Batch of 3 targets.
Target 1
Amino acid sequence: MWSFEVTPIQRLIGTLGLLTFLASCTVEPLNATSSNRLSADGTSASVRTIMKSISVDPVGERVAQQVRNNLLFELNGGQLEPGGQYKVSLRVSPSTRSLAVEGDSLSSTSAQAVVRVNYRLIDTTSGKPISEGIRQAVASFDQTPQSYANERAARDAQNRAAKAVAQQVRLAIGQALTQNNS
């Protein structure tokens, strides 16, 4: 059996070491309001403030509209501030794929809704792209013999995937703005 006694000196050294380690941590959130950045006009603004003024180009179909709405909410809570320096253009490609097939009837019992987004962050003053990329989200759903239930389940899965991919795009935009404005 182990017998280990900690002396007061060892305890003091351990506590000081732990405090020194914790004091050296300088981790901050990606879009923290306390870290100031310089905007295009030379004034101090946080990445969060910049993100609140980003506009998102209109899109056409339902899933793309879900991605756009979720992205707008992620960026600015649904309240766009005028005079934004950046805009985002989206190209959304939704798809559905079957995962499992029932042996007797050869009907699909589960599926996945996949939402793939090509995004481009553009500086509106210069027209140059700041960042672009592809993000994808997947949401699973069950399929039953009822057609309306399948339609509703597929739509709900598309909405979940649209929300997830909008969060991914928001994080990518935040990273690009942090790198661009530092």
Target 2
Amino acid sequence: MRVFIGIEFPEQFKGSVESLKSEIESQLIKGRFSRIENLHLTLVFIGEITVDQVEPLGHMLDQVLATQKCFEMSIDELGTFSKGEQSIVWLGINKGKEHLFHLSQLLKKELSSRHYTYDIKPLKPHLTLVRQAKLVQDYVFPVVSFLQRWKVEKIHLYLSHQVNGILTYEPLHTTHLK
């Protein structure tokens, strides 16, 4: 089973992203939008584990995050990561970035001490909107400022799997922050 540790976005934020989708669609030659239901921010991508490792990973999350406090997060940027002729269109995190870096490092340190493997790439706090995107030439991204901020209150261990041919992220364990 394929897993990662991440943060889910609140419903009101997902509504704002849905309205931004039509703006991006008008400038998109091709690409695959992330499903609104799957919007999340990955803190640590772990990858393949066995069913027997789910419970110990959940306990690890509870222990590592026991003293971590809730924090506010907001979005301030729309941009791309280029991969040849295709790109990933993303939303960048503004408020809360320092907390995300701290949590990611804390979790990676603990995963290492328990001999779990994980993706070692440094965290780039973002939300993937479109994969394999090809935008019209000279497209200028609109200024994005989701005025709402939201409180991050929980961290999830997610299962990433296909359900009836559709990529789905399902929380396996949830840890509440203080």
Target 3
Amino acid sequence: MGTQGTAPTHRRPPIVLGIILVLAGLWMLGRELGWPLFAGDVLWPWLIVALGLVFWVRYIFFTPRSSDDVFWGTGAILAGGFLLAWRNGLFLSHLHGWGELWPLIPLILGLSALVQWLFSLRDWGALIFGISAGAVGAVGLAYTSGMISGVQAFKIAQFWPAILILAGIGLVLKALVR
């Protein structure tokens, strides 16, 4: 009696378990073949990348979708990818410690916000934060890596009020779009 008119339930395959198996297999294959990104002391950045993939899987396959998953997923993948490249001497290996690498934090957050904005075009806050944080990170990284001098960095920093202008434009656009 109770089964009439009810739709059959379909169980969703365990996506997260599948991702874990793929990542574990890649990890073990990379270690067996001696790939440098899979050396024993660089496991933890891969865990950060895996966390980012979990956020993206949640965004892609589960509802309701939140652009916050895009932000955190992108940020974790970028952070883990950078740490893998840096620890293996593939990117910015001449920089030592967070005293010189700090600009990567606002840069990664800014890039993550820009990707979030691409998935939620009406989120002007994400766009403004992405541009602002990305600019701070880019200038900071150019300075700490020796691409620009302290004088040049200071001249660029004098344009910080442009962030206020961007915030104001964002608020005006948000009010007009509603």
